[in-house]
Design a protein that fits this description.
By secondary structure, this protein is an alpha/beta fold. The protein is 34% helix and 14% strand.
Amino acid sequence: MGASGRIEGTRYGVLRDGEVAAVSFHNPRLPWSELERVLSGRSTGGKGSDGGKGSGAERHLHVVDPLAVDADGGDSPAWSRRREHYRPPELARPDGVPPYAELHAHTNFSFLDGASHPEELAEEAVRLGLTALAVTDHDGFYGVVRFAEAARALGLPTIFGAELSLGLPGPQNGVPDPHGNHLLLLAHGHEGYARLAATIARAQLRGGEKGRPVYGELEEIAADLRDHVLVLTGCRKGHVPAALLTEGVDAAARELDRLTALFGAETVAVELTDHGHPVDGDRNDALAELATAAGLPTVATNNVHYATPGRRRLATTLAAVRARRSLDEIDGCPRRAPPTCGTAPR
């Protein structure tokens, strides 16, 4: 593009009578404004770009935007170029609800893992009287824009975070129980958000393929994020719970000491989640004792993967698709279908 804002020597395809016309390096200089007008299908009103009468209208036939025909107002690229503004439903906050903020929740932007839209989670949080809600999708901030818009309209305080997938040998689609460890991080303010976003972006680029971010060692992550994130010990794939399950209390204590040494004791909390599984009580007791011994706070979460109990069947189906297993194989097996373990925030 030249300094005059015109297209010079760039190859473009222009739709004419339903066909794509090749544009070579010998086409006339065309202002960006005129290209935008033509592609948008707007008439010149009988006056072309050269000031002549009717030349512009004759040279460029009307272009119909296929995305604007029969659009239903949704946000799918197949229907519209722009998502409609969020319109909150009429919701009443309940009275006398104990203060509770859900700090571990996945939207459907955690692909084939979360089963509810960001807006659904925000609405359910308000309906239940939560004081705040954190969105912690896997390896990205994909859902935070829609979540933030809905939360602002609903008057719901927000927390932005992410659950990092560490040590992945490759993309995990088709793996019943995905490999690797999880690291749950909540951003502290604008700086924390920017640093966490940069860490995720570097990992995605370093991985070289979709679904395999490469973050490096915990030391590398902590060097960029210390004092800018709150670290939760996470789900059963977190470093501390995983060590507790496979190697016992001493190994879990070592992993907890490692987290506090790297990120700072003031920014680490031990996460407790109870979905009614037989081992949940014993695991939470052990984790609470580790927190007390280390002088760390405990945080209760639901590790949410869907907004309401009615979404459980969808979550189970998504887990089956992700694992490439039948519903009979995947249902009722919490270690193979993590989304079925999610509950609505309570």
